[in-house]
Amino acid sequence: MMISALLCLSIPFSGPSLIDEVRHRAVSFFWNESNEATGFTKDRASNGDGGDKNSIASCAAVGYALVAYPIGVEHKWLERNAALERTRTTLSHLLTDWQQSHGWLYHFADWKTGERQWKSEASSVDTSLCLAGVLFAEKYWKDPQVTRDADRFIKRIDWDWMLTDGGAKPDAVHFSMGWHPESGFINNRWSDYNEAKFLYIQAYGLSDVTNAGWDKIRRPRETYKGLELITGGPIFMHEMSEGFYDFRGKRDRLGYEYSIEQKNDVLANRQYCIDNPKKFKGYGPDFWGLNACDEPDGYGAFGAPGWISDNGTVCPTGPLAAMPAIPKEATSFAAALRRDYPTAWGRYGFPDALNPSRNWIDTDVLGIDLGMMLCATENYETGLIWRINSANPVIKRGFERAGLKNAKPDPRLQVPSP
Predict the structure, then answer these.
(1) Residue 88: count of CB within 10 angstroms of its CB
(2) For the chain, which residues make up each domain, given as ranges?
(3) Among 342, 349, 350, 319, which Cα is nearest to 332's?
(4) Which side of the chain, N or C, has fewer Cβ within a 10 Å radius?
């Protein structure tokens, strides 16, 4: 079953139809760039019309694919039976083919065989991104085969092993970033405020590992142009967990409401680009978004304010994944990008990044970045991912163990309800 035809020339530069097309093309990436035999999704693909020869899949992209198929069905971009069968195929081969250790998937694998590639790590955060897709798919489809395989996938994850470095650190409260068979556990841990909130929500919901780590996550604070925020960095750190789980109206034991933190961080990222202290070409109210992304010389992690890394590269994922928090600014960004950089629009929509100061437009898109845009824009319009995940007892338990409870509305946050 092929995804419905995509017509570039008919797409307006603004309005809901452009955002619909951004989502449509993201769904087409996950459909076209997932292997029909295994369901494994490429980490990246060409945004041109000539097809793609990449063969490396990422388990994180697979997780987003499992979310993309229901979105495609809901919008009638995918036929339901075909999407369900692709989901069944994906879960089955995740269990049998994708190499793993103690249930933790290797970050990168061959998209046909599941064999580990690039000596990548058994990744805690990327496995959890895949798990986010598995949990969502199981609740959406309510299909016996999907439920059976999802349950098997979930139960083989050894949370204690990744938390304690296989028992070597029995008092650890923060997860290791991963494990290499050649060198053992990665010393760095998920102990700073970043994208990994979903890792802890899932661990607390699915296991009895200590929940002491949540309160001990480092949350350095600052103020930028009147915006109080947890120190910024690449903008995705404030968007990835929020795409899966609805933090609105909930505060933890420390008093944080993370939807407010997200809003202030993305507004500060935008304001930094408006201020444009390094005078890069193009920056302004409708051209912003410093993120981890491709850049003219390879791959970089750009961000501001707080710690600042900026070479003139903007990633469209940042503004579009901020849509639930700042819909007007996100929509305006998309319209301006489509209007002002027409050659940046490709087979799968906007490129991963562009740098006008270097006269550079990325030729690729990345699965995780398309996935973040897809989740955020869908949540803004329909609340689909938030609604299904919020009803899941696993996620409810995870929120409770993290201390996230309903709180009175905060006047600093005005986010439309789905």
Answers:
(1) 18
(2) 16-406
(3) 319
(4) N
